[in-house]
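subagent[fold] <- orchestrator: predict structure for attached chain, return tokens only, no commentary.
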Amino acid sequence: PAGHGRPPTLHAARIEGGARRDVTAMASADGACRVLSIQSHVVHGYVGNKCAVLTLQLLGFDVDAINSVQFSNHAGYPTFKGHVFDGEHLRGILAGLEENNITEYSHLLTGYVGSASLLREIAAVARKLREWNPSLEYVCDPVLGDEGKLYVPADLVGTYRDEVLPLASMLVPNQFEVEMLTDTKITTVADAFAACRLLHDKGPHTVIITSAAATDASNANGVILLLASTTLPQAKGPEHQQLVLSVPKIDAYFTGTGDLLASLLLGWTHQHPDDLAASIDAAVSSLQAVLLQTASTCDEATLGMKKPSSEGCKRRELRLVQNQSSITNPPAGAVRCRTLKEFQALSK
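subagent[fold] -> orchestrator:
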């Protein structure tokens, strides 16, 4: 496993537009938008909270971070050192926040969790936060594995399914994680949206499958598909409740992209609560800009190496600080979501 537990994954990084949106900080000036982010932390690099906190702060959110692990660096490096925290650790920190009456959160964001006790405690925290704020939006990245392989304890699957999903507002899994959570196999776009419906039934109003490889999609071997489904009313009409974004692949491996995307989606869906397509376009445009600039600093061999040296890992760390403007002002026209109906017409 790599990163906060999720291995490096193949990502697209082609930017097709040059104009930039005139977008600045989106959260309210009075500080009403406050995120509690529970995920991994590394001393060096940008995964987990190191990625999420900066991204959300640039988008205007106050962010309080609780670490699920504390590592020297992400686990894609040849070695790493650190600690994995348990539920008692989280319970103690939340007690301190509660005793000081500083638990007013508008959003909860969770990512990599390394222990079952911590995940169960996260569910307890989500329930408590929602008691205090019934409008709490919970964005959950259910980090389980990828490419057919689990890299967390197997009992976390059931805990996510039974205890966490009923509390989540938005779920941002990859295809393998959807298959694990729904006990289904996805080979077509129709399979993926059927799985989304199963997940909606468990709780989340919005499901965004961040990477899918449907065999019936046009040019399936050359693209990554992002598939989104929401039960929330959309300003552009009900057809915009099912969306597809097709992005060309590049032969490169990055770590932390899922953490960055989840943070961007939290930010932009807050800005566009009734326009999921616009939110995804903005989030993925920023992600692609960061990946493209990061890739430009690496040679081809470093980009494509599954198990690089420490120097190779260091070169592939996401260049967030150098790309702050791409986060606050996503390149306009870089990508465009289509409705499922539009995508099906183009795929014929």
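orchestrator: received. Logging for downstream: The CA atoms of residues 1 and 7 lie 5 Å apart. Residues 34-347 form a domain with the UDP-N-acetylmuramoyl-L-alanine:D-glutamate ligase fold (CATH 3.40.1190.20).
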